[in-house]
Amino acid sequence: MSTSPVPLTGSSGRAPAPRVASGRLPSAAERRAECADFEDRLTAELMTAVGGARRRALRDGDRQIDTAHLLHSLVEADPETAAVLDEGDRLARVLGYLVQRSIGYGLRWQRAAEETGSGLPVVRGGGNGAAGWSPAAATALAGAFERAVRRGDRRVRGLDLLAALAADPGNRAAEVLRRAGVDALALTARIEEPSQQV
User: Fold this and answer.
1) Single pTM value for the model
2) Could you give the CA distance from residue 121 to residue 140 in angstroms, rounded to a whole number?
3) The Cα angle at residue 113 between residues 179 and 138, in degrees rounded to 5
């Protein structure tokens, strides 16, 4: 199974037009170019989080990298994300739920693919390198890229991804946040505060 990240925006900063299914798989050179563009657009912390999510999914034997994998690695790799969640004992509760992924409610996640739970458009892969990402994770990554573009920044930050994860109430990351007592609207407001913008 390929775990290449989905290239969600092109060099113009806009999301590329969906590819028409032609029955042709992308060449190795095309996949490498897409991956390089994707990685070039992420901050070092977010790139570490994406790599950590990929390793976590493989280690757990999950079929796809989902939003809970992304949230777990993001909290561990990105100090800005940890700081936004570090109010009271929320960060500890979020990490507690994520650590329990391999038991309890996490077991039912292994039996089903993660879809988005809201009316957000789903980014689907086909032959464009999205294999290995759940639809909700690919959609959250696309949302993070869009936030960076709206901010006028070419680089996507961990806070962009955190806001995108919280925006879809039906994904696994949002479920973890809710169970830990994190209000998605309040979280988004904290992310938007000028003091959180570096």
Assistant:
1) 0.74
2) 10
3) 85
